Amino acid sequence: MRSYDCAIVGSGPAGLGAAFEILARRPDARVLILEREKVSSGGLRNDCKMNFSWPIGFPTEYWPVEVADAYLRRVEDFLQPTILPQRNISTYERRASRIGVQLLKVRQSHLGTDGGLELIKSLLSRLSGLGAEISLEEELISIDRERKTARTSKGEFEWDQLVVAPGRHGFDFLRGFMRENAIEFSDNSIDVGVRVETRAEHYPIVKDYYDPKFLFPERTRTFCTNSGAAHVVQERYLARNGETYYSVNGHAYSAASRANGLVNFAVLRSVEFTQPLASGQDYAEFLASLAMLTGGGHPIMQRIGDFRLGKRTTRDGLNDDLYDFEPSLASCTPGDISLAMPAKFLRSIWKALKQLDTIVPGVLHPATILYYPEIKLYANKPRFLDANFQAADGIYLVGDGAGTSRGITAAWASGMRAADGIAARKGW
Fold it and tell me: Which of 89, 115, 155, 228 has the most other CB atoms within 10 Å of its CB?
């Protein structure tokens, strides 16, 4: 039977951060990285934009500023990003502050989807050169905590330390893993919103600030801006009942290729269920199923001009008059998002968009598209035994799926932090 000092489930930034740090501490460590997909997955594949300022991406219950800053320095030292300049944003800051909105200044890097793929290729090559074993299309099925063995889709192996880092797409897998292994957790939070797409000339702030972070009242914010060579995409998820649903997302290629003059970004509203305490995952699947029903199995898109008039968007309405660009996700169903989005989310998001149009006039041009749903599943909250995200003896849960991060840099930092805990336990 194969035997490893550390097995890592998931090859996204959290898993990679853990692997590199373990091998830096113990070069002869036997390290296995399992990935259920055909290719290395995770946030590095999709646009590959990285934020290097607290608290962006760092849930504050786990990451006090001094702890986050120390790990951010380590992540930056390892990845050596090129930080993008920010120019001419004082006007936007003043407009925002006058109406109770905050514009965060965040140190950012952007590689684009194509650059992210090259980075992944380089990182995996380096890990292989350091002696790590990377097994693609191998899925973890179950573990035996007492014997410290694991059963996968390809066989069995023994592990001494286990890092589980499945990312957002592995949210439900992680929930099942925790239930099977008696790890206490809650998943009562959810982020629901729309993805906005418009011409870059209608959102000119992106010329000076690649991914502007606006915080609005009612726990609403902008998230994940893409511009230049930007596209809206749909991501496939599998619900617990076996049904497929899609959530939209955005990505962009590097500035040197495939420019289309568009920009897209999410506006998300956060909610926590307290009385009664409910599952955010179950609620997300309910909302997604309603969106799929309304959109005939696809996400919904609606033009701002139609939304303001209270009417649905039709395929014939996507014309070359006011509606002056083709949607980058043409498979979406033109329709009425108000039929599928709960009013609490829709009211907060529409209020935020009107405030944003005051700060950056033009973003609510009649041609601007709202895509729905965009749902973020990173709200698992395990009960950890220590500050290094150990959830059971020798088992560490990290990354967006475990609620310890919300983005590439924080996920990488959470993997490093778990590796620090392993090294301290093992005396490496």
Answer: 228
Question: Does the structure show a pLDDT above 90 at 320?
Answer: no
Distance CA 144, CA 253 (A): 43
Classified as helix, coil or strand, 316 is coil
171 contacts: CB under 8 Å, gap ≥ 6: 187, 281, 377, 378, 379, 380, 401
What is the C-alpha to C-alpha distance for residues 29 and 24, in angstroms, rounded to an integer? 9
Task: Kindly report the average pLDDT of the chain as a whole number.
Answer: 93
H/E element, 32: strand 31-35
| Segment 80-93 mean pLDDT | 95
User: Average of pLDDT values for 165-177?
Assistant: 87
Q: Are residues 405 and 283 in the same domain?
A: no
Examine residue 344 and state whether it is found in any structural domain, yes or no.
Answer: yes
How far is the C-alpha of 340 from the C-alpha of 374, rounded, in Å?
Answer: 12
List, in order, residues 6 or more apart from 69 with CB less than 8 Å away: 54
Encoded amino acid at 280, one letter:
G
Local structure of 286: helix, strand or coil: helix
Structure tokens at 360: 């950056």
Asked whether residue 131 falls in the same domain as residue 258, the answer is: no
Looking at the fold, whether 333 and 271 belong to one and the same domain comes out as yes
Please give the Cα distance from 212 to 227 (Å, whole number): 11
How far apart, in whole angstroms, are the C-alpha atoms of residue 359 and residue 27? Answer: 52
pLDDT digits (tens, 9 = 90+) for 403-416: 999 999 999 999 99
